[in-house]
């Protein structure tokens, strides 16, 4: 369902008013009862522009980013979210000043630092496919859905990963559509943002 992290792209570059407006809305949002920090979900299909938006928001909000792709992997495409709750969201909810978790490795050309040690900032951004899934919602102060057409998302993925990965990107799209039908993240979102906004 998730896939290797996208690098920064351009869907939101040059649109500071939109980003500034979202940042201000996040600042005005309320944390769930018992949450000492605000956790903001940036959700959407792979290739929609989530990473770019999350990076820009993180700069404005002085926020740390947790990437769902650090937990998901080809070997665990379904149940990884329980580890994200246990190793990130629950420690944050308990008031931890830092979190530590082992990053997933997506293949020989993907070599992240094996362990992430992150400070907990007053706003944390949870970025990636399924970031606003039902199980994460008790921890979320704000949720953003990033919308982009299928052909755009697939084209971005293939441009990054190569034509040989087209079938994989098509499979991921179908799995993401199943998630959307089941969890209805667009209905939960505080804002739906298209790549043309």
| Mean pLDDT over all positions | 86
Strand order in space, largest sheet: 2-5-1-6-7
**What is the number of helices?**
6
- Cα-to-Cα separation, first versus last residue: 26 Å
Structural class: alpha/beta
Task: Give the count of structural domains.
Answer: 1
Quote the CATH topology.
Rossmann fold
Number of strands: 7
Describe this structure in words.
This protein has 197 residues and is an alpha/beta fold. It has helices spanning 16-28, 50-61, 81-93, 150-161, 166-183, 185-188, and strands at residues 38-44, 64-67, 98-102, 115-119, 123-127, 142-147, 191-194. It has a single domain (16-194), classed as P-loop containing nucleotide triphosphate hydrolases (Rossmann fold), CATH 3.40.50.300. Helix content is 37%, strand content 18%. The radius of gyration is 16 Å and the shape is globular. The chain starts with 15 loop residues before the first helix and ends with a strand.
Structural key phrases:
two-stranded antiparallel sheet; 197 residues; alpha/beta; disordered N terminus; 7 strands; Rossmann fold; five-stranded parallel sheet
Describe the SSE topology.
Blueprint: H1 16-28, E1 38-44, H2 50-61, E2 64-67, H3 81-93, E3 98-102, E4 115-119, E5 123-127, E6 142-147, H4 150-161, H5 166-183, H6 185-188, E7 191-194
Parallel strand pairs: 1-5, 1-6, 2-5, 6-7
Antiparallel strand pairs: 3-4
Helix pairs in contact: 1-2, 4-5
